[in-house]
User: What shape does this take?
Amino acid sequence: MNKEKRTAIIAGNWKMNKTASEAKELIESLIPLVKDAGCTVIIGVPFTDIAVAVDLTKGTNIHVAAQNVHFKDSGAYTGEISPRMLTEAGVEYVIIGHSERRQYFGETDETVNLRARAALAAGLKPIICVGESLEQREAGVTEEFVCRQVVMALLNMTAEDLANVVIAYEPIWAIGTGKTATKEQAEEVCAFIRKVVEENYSKAVADALTIQYGGSMNAGNAADLLSMEDIDGGLIGGASLKPNDFAVIVGAASK
Ligand code: PGA
Assistant: This one.
């Protein structure tokens, strides 16, 4: 069993929710609830909440993630944020390639790879999201599709890079729908992703990689999903906006 050796990570993905003053309130309630966590705790906040999040979580066990990053260091890219802007602001992690970005904002496997590599080069840890649509699952091409997403996302990354990468398996049909994958469905794909990484790198790299499940994970189903061998944590949308629920999920991931 390698699960025990891996870092369990519970990451909140706030999406486009919470103004800075609302973020302050949420973080202040969350800090005491997760202070004894036995896993890594991350909050993925909107850009405008980064300053308040970094400030409030200083000296706590909560880490701050952004929800996107550009791959260039600076330049004429209106509306984008560079890796260095994030590191200087105190951000440690960045969510990349979320299905909402792929679906609504033209994110592709290629830009996911560029963003993830730029993040790594700047010292940020990317949480790379992959996952199939309902149509793909029903057509029986989940593994083929997810394999391609994983291989493309990790293109030109070294084994050393992989030590700082997190992969989040998020079936699109389970995101924000209240329809969670069963623990068997989630485990099957997370184990498959680990196999793909083993084939492209090594067993040691694959065994050490944190793979999260995301998609309607909540206080009620987290323990069950997290009990699976290849599910090392969660990327949590809706439930991350409720401090008590998020703390229950953190507790379920704590060893
Ligand atoms: P959800 O979102 O937990 O609200 O389904 C998960 C995600 O999109 O990361």
In short: The chain has one domain: 9-253. The pocket of 2-phosphoglycolic acid is lined by residues 13, 170, 175-176, 214-217, 235-239 (CB under 6 Å).
